[in-house]
From TrEMBL:
A Pfam family matched in the record: LacI
Statement: the UniProt record of this protein carries the keyword ATP-binding: no
Keyword Iron in record: no
Keywords annotated in UniProt: DNA-binding, Transcription, Transcription regulation
Organism: Streptomyces sp. 900129855
Molecular-function GO terms, alphabetical: DNA binding
Lineage of the organism: Bacteria, Bacillati, Actinomycetota, Actinomycetes, Kitasatosporales
HTH lacI-type domain sequence ranges: 1-53
Name assigned to this protein: LacI family DNA-binding transcriptional regulator
Length: 333
């Protein structure tokens, strides 16, 4: 600023007035200062100005590498944060880099609030975190911790998928479990409840898995091995998420199993991955944009009013029917 002031022939205080867009400088002086600043390549450090006032106006987002649905959420977080006058800083949890390390990196960069995408953190950690900063958990319930929670109604989404398969005529419906993944417990309970509701309790089968393609591939291998030993394939599989469904499709298409002629596959999330598969994936859509918007608004509102009681936003999922689901093979049921 001193260099701009010297070259423009004005005081440093006047340069500050111009860059803060405050009254006190003529239009001619204002334009001269801006022109000089452009010539010498100077631009005001807005982050430094905010920090000097004790604010960073930055939201930190902790996400997990390789979770495709997280990229959809992040794409929705940016525009809403910008609309409310906030920047976004990302920090990833990955193999060898814990969630706690990702969170501490965000806090060290003076993020004012945190949005945690499908955090694995236990309640005591989240409780401690909530006393350090404003925090919002997306996708995973933080039972007992004073953080805001945004998620889809997992049970209703699974019920839609199961009703769809049963209406097509399916009875032997298998569920690939999501392990400790976000929403997995709710989806597992809803699958079991739907099978009981349709009188199919004797057909209930939950195969251990997680939210990865490998989980679907291993399930496919298991089912094919069982078929080779004389056990019939299920007629439909409800996967933990789209990634697991994609792995299953990969395993099936390498052999002589045709989807959906021989076996129907349903995913969960409706991530952009579901549109890229060779076979359009029937899946339960979580509205990533709405989830992101609610999370950002919760974070900003808590910054403005830290005394708010913990809040929960539950959004409606919607079944999206594509080419991977159809009637069971004739006589299979």
């Amino acid at each position: 600023m001193a260099d701009v002031a010297a070259k423009a022939g004005v005081s440093r205080a006047l340069v500050s007035i111009v860059f803060r867009d405050q009254p006190g400088a003529s239009e001619e002086t204002r334009q001269r200062v801006l022109r000089v600043a452009d010539e010498i390549g100077y631009s005001p450090d807005s982050a430094a100005r905010l920090l000097a006032r004790g604010r960073s106006r930055t939201l930190g987002v902790m996400f997990t590498v390789h979770q495709i649905f997280h990229t959809d959420l992040i794409a929705g977080i940016y525009p809403e944060a910008e609309r409310l006058g906030y920047d976004v800083l990302l920090s990833a949890a990955a193999e060898g880099r814990s969630e706690a390390k990702a969170v501490e990196a965000l806090l060290s960069h003076r993020c004012e609030a945190l949005i945690l995408l499908a955090s694995d953190a236990e309640t005591p950690y989240l409780d401690e975190l909530a006393h350090r900063t404003a925090a919002v958990s997306v996708g995973r319930r933080a039972t007992g911790a004073p953080v805001d929670f945004v998620h889809s109604a997992e049970g209703r989404g699974v019920r839609q998928a199961m009703d769809h398969l049963v209406e097509l005529g399916h009875r032997r419906i298998v569920h690939i479990d999501g392990g400790r993944g976000p929403g997995s417990a709710e989806r597992r309970r809803a699958y079991r409840a739907a099978m009981r509701r349709h009188g199919l309790e004797s057909e209930v089968r939950v195969i251990p898995g997680d939210h990865t393609e490998q989980s679907g591939i291993e399930t496919g291998r298991l089912l094919l091995d069982e078929r080779d030993r004389g056990q019939p394939l299920p007629t439909a599989v409800l996967a933990a998420n789209d990634r697991s469904a994609m792995g299953l499709l990969m395993a099936l298409t390498r052999v002589d199993v045709e989807v959906p002629r021989d076996l129907s596959v349903v995913g969960y999330d409706d991530s952009h991955l579901s549109h890229l598969m060779p076979i359009g994936l029937t899946t339960v859509r979580q509205d990533a944009v709405l989830l992101a918007e609610h999370a950002v608004r919760f974070a900003v509102e808590r910054l403005e009013n830290p005394e708010l009681a913990p809040r929960e936003a539950v959004l409606e999922p919607k079944l999206v029917v594509r080419a991977s689901s159809g009637p069971p093979p004739e006589g299979a049921g």
